[in-house]
Amino acid sequence: MRILIQTIMAVLAVTFATAPTLSAEDKPVPDELAKKAREAIQKGVDYLTDTQEKDGSWGHHPAVTSLCAIALHNSGTTRNKVIREAAVEQARKFILKFVQKDGSIWMAGEEREYPNYTTACALCALAVINNPADVKVMRAARKYLIGSQVTDPKNPALGGIGYGKAGPGHPDLSNTQWALEALYLTDYLDKEPNVKSPEDAKKSDLAWKNAVKFLSALQNVPESNDATWVVKDKKDPNYGSFVYQDGYSKAGKEGQTLRGYGSMTYAGLKSMVYARLKKDDPRVKAAVEWGAKHYTLSENPGLGPAGWYYYLHTFAKAHAVLGDDYVVTPDGKKHSWRADLISELLKLQKSKGEWYNDKSGRWWETMPQLVTAYALMSIEAALGHGLK
Fold first, then answer.
1. Which domain holds residue 195?
2. Is the pLDDT of residue 16 over 90?
3. pTM for the structure as a whole
4. Within-domain flag for 157
5. Contact between residue 294 and residue 199 where contact means Cβ atoms under 8 Å apart
6. DSSP string covering 188-220
7. Given this model, what pLDDT does residue 388 score?
């Protein structure tokens, strides 16, 4: 027996000794670039901790505060770790001030506030922070979001979630993708051994099934979407892309076809992965192929500078949960999305460690705290932190 064990150990030793090691060029993120990325993250973290309000918020808003808290928590920085952790805890306490009786988390009563969007962001933050004291709040927020989903099979927006409660309104992919991320991060609460009742588990499963129907209804794939605005030819440049709402795209029309664009396509792709669609699913493949054909980090493809950082962060999260390190574009070139994304964001970081969109002010992207959160979450995803 001893001889056998010695033989096995010798074989293993040879195997590991001769196993190929990745050269610097073969690594998705070369060591030097990873070092610079960590330095950029630290600068961004310092900026956020320096600009946190006395009430624990950023911008006195629970949604913005939630995203900043996620970025800080997932950064993993060790310098000034005590300050960072204290900032996250202050943010958590600020978020909890806005918990409502129905489980939602938002600035109730304020004009032009968005209960579903804010609840989703807040639930994401609480799930990432993962304080056991918040489980009851997370369950209630999760139940609220599931209850906000359109469930009427006659409604073309079946499975979608809008800014407000479910009804005859207009659910959109942006709100839906945030809600689905929150549900994805807290899915364990409706699984054994944590689920409270079989009914909760059934509602959770149905929510994901309906979400897939909503996602399919917003994608330019005629095999799974028969809407009149959908492309008919796979060679069409819009094939595989996603739009904002059924019948409406912020990128406009091209004849009868709605143009898809980057941020929504990656929001849709990420959401399909959350919903457990496989890589070989035609809808997933079509979205991945669209992304490869429109591969860029210098703008939000289809919208230019508008929503640029929102795009970068959905791009990063989608690729991170897909699990591939490289994107092969139609010209045959192999791109490390992780390295390309980090390099782009290193160029864009401002002098105080912050980021903001100086080319377009749409969707709050002139707010440095919000955009810094987007940028940090993007780099963190590229380095393998956060979502899996």
1. 51-217
2. no
3. 0.90
4. yes
5. no
6. GGGSTTT-S-HHHHHHHHHHHHHHHHHHHTTBS
7. 58
> String of b and e for 368-386 (b: at least 16 CB within 10 Å)?
bbbbbbbbbbbbbbbbebb
Cα–Cα distances in Å, from 90 out to 9, 54, 66, 98, 129?
Answer: 52, 9, 11, 14, 12
d(CA 308, CA 382): 17
- The answer to whether residue 163 is domain-embedded is yes
CATH code where residue 139 lies: 1.50.10.20
The position carrying tokens 């001769």 is: 18
- pLDDT of 164 reads 75
Q: How confident is the model at residue 169 (pLDDT cuts 50, 70, 90)?
A: low
Q: Is residue 71 part of a domain?
A: yes
246: its two tokens: 């059924």
Query: Is residue 275 domain-resident?
Result: no
C-alpha span between 380 and 146 (Å, rounded): 28
Supply the angle between the helices 262-274 and 198-216 in degrees, to the nearest 10: 150
CA–CA separation, 267 and 160 (whole Å): 13
* Dihedral of alpha carbons 320, 321, 325, 326, sign: negative
User: How many structural domains are present in the chain?
Assistant: 1
Q: What is the pLDDT of residues 66-89, one digit of tens each?
A: 999 999 999 999 999 999 999 999
pLDDT class of 387 with cuts at 50, 70, 90: low
For a pLDDT cut of 90, what percent of the chain falls above it? Answer: 82
